[in-house]
Amino acid sequence: MMNPNHPEKTAVVTGGSRGIGRGIVLQLAKLGFKIVIHSRTGGEPAQQTKRDALLAGSPEVLCMEADLADHDQYNSFVQRTFDHLGSCHVWVNNAGIAPQVRADLLETTPESWDHVLNTNLKGPFFLTQSVAKFMLNQRLHNDFSTPDHIIFVTSISSTVASIQRGEYCVSKAGLSMVAQLFAARLASQGVIVTEIRPGIIATDMTASVKDKYDSLIAQGLVPQARWGTPEDVGKVVTAIARGDLNFSTGAVITVDGGLTIARL
Ligand code: NAD
User: Is 6 a residue whose pLDDT tops 90?
Assistant: First the structure.
C-alpha cells in the first residue's frame, strides 16, 4: 500500500546484485519501491536482479557500480544515487566479503585484514556517514511524518568466534557497534537504524563451504534444521521498510534459525 507521506518510496541496496542483497531487492520490489541496486561489478547478475525486481512490482530499477572499499567514491556515489532517486527512504548496507582464504587465526595476514575491514567496516561506516547527512538534509526540506531507515546486514559472526576467519568476525563485531552508534546519533531526527544478523544463508559466499555446513546442520547446529535463504532476510527488511518496527531503533534482529541460542 502506498504511504501518503512517501508517495514515491525509494531504496538503495548495496551488494544488491546477488545473494542476500538480491533477496532484499526482490522483497522491496514487491512493496513497490523504486530501487537502486548497487554492486561492485554490476554485469549480468545485477541486470537479472533488475529484470526480476521490475517483474515483482518495482516501478523503476537502476544498477550502479562502485567499489565500497574505495572511500574516495562515497560522496559522489551517494550524491548520484540521491539525484537519481530524488530521495532515499531505505538504505541497506548489505555488501560485504569473506576473506579470500580461511586461514587459522595464527596465520591471518595484514593484507587480508585490511581488505576485509576496509570493505566490511570502514566502507559502511563512512558511506553511512554520507548517507545520514543526505537523509537529514532531505528531511529538513520535506515534511515527512514517517521515519527513514538505515539497515546494516552484519552476521552472527559479530558474536560467534570463527578462528579460521578472525578478520571477518572483527569486521562484523565492529559493524554491530557502527549500527548502534548511528542509531543513537540519528534517533531524534527521524532516521531509524536496524541491524540484521544472518546466520548460515545459501549464497555464492557460502557455496565453497556447502558440504561442511550441510553436515553441521544435519548434526543439529541450526535448531530449525535448514539453511537460511536470501528471502528470509528480505522479509525482515520488508517489515522494517513497511514501518512495522518504528519504535525499535538500534534493534538487532537475528535471522539464523536459532543458531545463536545458547544451549546445553
Ligand atoms: P555474496 O558474495 O553473494 O554477495 C555480495 C555482494 O556484495 C555482491 O553484490 C557484491 O558485488 C557486493 N560487494 C562485495 N564487495 C564489494 C565492494 N568492495 N564494493 C561494492 N560491492 C561489493 O554475499 P552474501 O552471502 O549475499 O552476503 C551479503 C552480506 O551478508 C555480506 O555483508 C555478508 O557478510 C553478510 N552475511 C552473509 C551470510 C551468508 O551465510 N551468506 C551470513 C551472514 C552475513
Answer: no
